[in-house]
Design a protein that fits this description.
The protein is an alpha+beta fold. The protein is built from three helices and 13 strands, in the order ααββββαβββββββββ. The strands form six sheets. Strands 7-8-9 form a three-stranded antiparallel beta sheet. A two-stranded antiparallel sheet has the order 1-2. A two-stranded antiparallel sheet has the order 3-4. The chain is rod-shaped.
Length: 215
């Protein structure tokens, strides 16, 4: 009788243990199921992306890939109004979702380097800040100086209105009046007139415009 009771107790104990195990499995399964996003994200972050090159700044803001949430802010350029001629030559910008390259030049040196033909009259600065006017259809010649004191040469390259005699003709801007001659802002006054030059290149005023006569 005692042996029977011992067996019954053993069976009951085993049954209780089995029920406890089943309940534990059920509870654990429920916890994992309810927290699967956390588990998935943890797995992605710690395991799947150990060798990943993903960087938050490469992913659009608000988007999560492999547990990494993006921080990249996309720039909307569709309200931009800049044109190539508004941007310095060779510089780039994005306008209305497209990349544009600047065509604007501000100096004689830039115009000489890029050989730009101007579609309208424009003023350029020389090396010392003097202003040089370039007419439409002209460019700064390749053999030009970059300061008016050295002679800024403009070249007619316009097809419209040009004849075979005027096209590609060159003209030299002769500085007249107060002209800046160095980077310190020093000036010299050049009188409009007729000059001769010695073998060193030094000019000699023969006749000023104010004293002009037929002779």
């Amino acid at each position: 009788m005692k042996k029977l009771r011992s067996k019954q107790k053993l069976v009951c104990s085993i049954a209780i243990i089995l029920v406890a195990i089943i309940l534990a499995i059920a509870i654990t399964t429920n916890i994992i199921k309810n927290n699967s996003p956390i588990a998935s994200e943890s797995y992605s972050t710690t395991t799947a992306n150990e060798n990943s090159n993903l960087v938050a700044s490469y992913i659009k803001s608000g988007i999560t890939i492999g547990g990494i949430t993006g921080t990249l802010e996309s720039l909307n350029t569709f309200d931009a109004t800049a044109l190539p001629e508004d941007i310095l030559w060779g510089e780039t910008a994005y306008v209305k979702g497209e990349k544009i390259t600047g065509t604007r030049v501000d100096t004689v040196a830039q115009a000489k380097e890029y050989q730009k033909v101007f579609e309208e009259n424009i003023y350029l600065r020389d090396d010392y800040g003097n202003r040089v006017k370039v007419p439409a259809g002209f460019k700064i010649a390749e053999d030009s100086a970059t300061a008016v004191t050295g002679g800024v040469v403009i070249e007619d390259v316009s097809a419209e209105g040009a004849t075979e005699y005027t096209k590609e003709s060159q003209f030299v801007w002769v500085p007249v009046g107060d002209v800046i001659t160095d980077n310190d802002g020093n000036t010299t006054t050049i009188t409009l007139g007729r000059y001769t030059f010695d073998n060193t290149g030094k000019e000699n005023l023969v006749q000023s415009a104010e004293n002009w006569n037929d002779t």
